[in-house]
Amino acid sequence: MKVTKFLLRHFITGGEIFHLARVKIFSRDDISLHNHDYAEIFWIEHGSGTHLINGKKMPLNTGDLVMMRPEDQHTFISNRQGITMMNLAFPIKTVQYFRKRYFSETEDFFWKKGPLPYQASLDVTVLRNVTHLAEKIWKHQSSPVYLDSFLLSLFKLLLPTENQPDNQDIPAWLNNAVQQFPAQPDIFRLGARGFASICGRNIDYVNRTVRKCYDKTLSTLVAELRMQFAARQLAITNAPIKSICHDCGFNNLGHFYKQFQAIYQQTPSQYRERHQRMS
């Protein structure tokens, strides 16, 4: 199959340094198989389909975000409703700068090795906020400051949580549960029982494994995941603190405040004011 090389200069006009667009795809014929002379990030806002990438077929669903390397060859097949995505294209030199400045030792994101590019599944709240951040830079496509600001914010959202221990002997089922637990609201509110249900194992066995891998109890791990979720919501949303408390599975607002302050040494209101002022 013929591969077309997309060039950034064909998408930008005088003075622009990046291209941001919202695209809707209904069939494979909408976008030809291609690679690029630029870096690309896209995320699925609505719909589902298949990503034809480097000779493989990968499912795409709402919330999926992919970082495309220039040499990657890809196109899309949508379901009947189509796929709505946002797409950001920008110079390779920006990726090189970020590599040198922030990610010199990582093999993730744009620097992932292997046949498939980096892909992450965003929960509904994070997806909404990534889109909001992108829309804020839409009118500033000539500014490297706005591009860098968006990328830094995105990388911060995607970095692994501080719960990841140094040893790499974590069972895949446990690592998956740590990643998926905050993304499933009904289960998230159940606490340790909900976490164990994602693991698909007896809660006592999950607790023993968490102790071995993380040197902490399952209850402590769940509390930390809840507080990290709360901190992220406080920093990037305007949701009422009472709603965030409920989403974290707390019935008592005072207990929520106590748990949050124990980890972050400030109240949820103070945390929100500080981080939203900085952003």
Please provide a written account of the structure.
The chain is α+β, with helices and mostly antiparallel strands and 279 residues long. It folds into two domains: 4-158, Sandwich (Jelly Rolls), CATH 2.60.120.280; 172-278, Arc Repressor Mutant, subunit A, CATH 1.10.10. It is 43% helix and 19% strand. The protein has helices at residues 92-101, 124-137, 144-158, 172-180, 185-188, 192-199, 203-214, 218-236, 241-247, 253-264, 268-278; strands at 4-6, 19-25, 34-36, 39-46, 49-53, 56-60, 64-68, 74-78, 83-90, 118-121. Helix 2 runs antiparallel to helix 3, helix 4 (172-180) crosses helix 6 (192-199) and helix 8 crosses helix 11 (268-278).
In short:
By secondary structure, this protein is an alpha+beta fold.
Strand content: 15-25%
CATH structural class of the largest domain: Mainly Beta
What is the H/E string?
A: EEEEEEEEEHEHHHHHHHHHH
Largest sheet: 5 strands, antiparallel
Instruction: Point out poorly predicted stretches.
Output: none
| Molecular shape | globular
Q: CATH superfamily membership of the largest domain, which one?
A: Regulatory protein AraC
Measured between the Cα atoms of the first and last residue, the distance is 45 Å
Number of helices: 11
Roughly how many Å is the radius of gyration? 20 Å
- The CATH architecture of the largest domain is Sandwich
Based on secondary structure, the structural category is alpha+beta
Number of domains: 2
Instruction: Find the CATH topology of the largest domain.
Output: Jelly Rolls
Helix content: 40-55%
Major β-sheet strand ordering: 2-9-4-7-10
How many strands in all? 10
Q: Report mean pLDDT, rounded to a whole number.
A: 87
